[in-house]
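Narrative of activities, Objective 1.

The group set out to show that a structural description can be obtained from nothing but a protein's sequence at a throughput compatible with the screening campaign. Below is one input-output pair from the validation batch, recorded exactly as produced.
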Amino acid sequence: MTDRPIITLLTDFGWGDGYIGAMKGVMLQINPDCRIIDLTHEIPPHDVMGAALVLGQTYPFFPSGTIHVAVVDPGVGGPRRPLVLETEGYRFVGPDNGCFTFVLKREEEKQAYELIEERFHLPRVSHTFHGRDIFAPVAAHLSKGVPPAEMGPPIEITDLTSLPIPDPMTEGETLRGEVIGVDSFGNLVTNISRDIMEAFAPDEVVEIEIGGKRIRGLRSSYEEGRTGEVIALWGSAGLLEISLKERSLHRERGWGRGEHVHIRRGK
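Output recorded for this entry:
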């Protein structure tokens, strides 16, 4: 454990209330030396898939040993379990509701523990704010070197909640995928990775159809194309994105999560 351990925070709390400040205050009381980094607090309310996407795209860029706290928790106070997920390089703290879906898909070595040991919680735990009362103190204790195994019993990895991420499917000459996320610029993030595309069309000469709109070929950057043109390109996470140059495609066309994407080999 480093002298200044890093804890990141990802929530849907926004900045209008004191929720984020309360969590930071709890962590700093337990470990004044920890460094708290805000990943984002602008996840749409209750959007667990959005949280999973952002966390999956950002966590590997932090130093080994970072503790990632994700609190997008529409089931707070219900039967979902609070947990810590330990991987080879990181620890993740939050509800067992799918927030860690992409971590589970990416990481090979992992172990999870249910957070039932009350000595690592605040003395009084509310039914509505586990971010402050359970997840924040747990993260702070982890940053001080407390092993996750002391915080509760192990959970089988196969018993953890994962969101149903649809896999792209090849049907004849068509690769069928769909939009799984929308970023703050209104770009549409699909479930089609570069590896899947290259296996389907090695030269990347393709025609992409979404919402009745056909897109010929891929662009190299958001700068290419004409203003207001619908373009396709590889996003920073290695997933195919559909974008409206210099505008919000989501807002102007109404396309969003679940929109079907059909890809055919170019001729």
